[in-house]
Amino acid sequence: MAAAGNRAEIIRSLFAAYLANDRAGVEAAFAEDFRFSTPYGENIDKPRYFAECWRDPGWIGRHEIERIMVDGAEAFVTYRCVARDGKSFRNTEFFVFNGDKVSRIDVYFGPSHQDGELVRQER
């Protein structure tokens, strides 16, 4: 992972680890009391996150990080994810850090597209 204290680089390293399917790198970046929330579930702990949310990132073609804004121990990242099948979506994630470990991520889903058209998302 990135050098201590550089939270924007820690976030960039996490996105790179997802693309590399580096689960150990992602696990190491998360604090033991890590929590994860989306519109589908709130306060999922670290073991449940990896059991339910981790999947082979081979479906991801690339992440396009649009912006990272860090304010002390908190950060927002907005990115566009482009799948290998041409689908794409844009999300924003809110990160909370405890030192150089990620203690919380809240995901806010954006719209999905394929071939320039909006794709309605099913849960």
UniProtKB/TrEMBL annotation:
SUPFAM superfamilies the record matches: NTF2-like
InterPro entries named in the record: NTF2-like_dom_sf (IPR032710), SnoaL-like (IPR037401)
Domain of life: Bacteria
Domain spans labelled SnoaL-like: 12-104
Name of the protein in question: Nuclear transport factor 2 family protein
Species for this entry: Bradyrhizobium uaiense
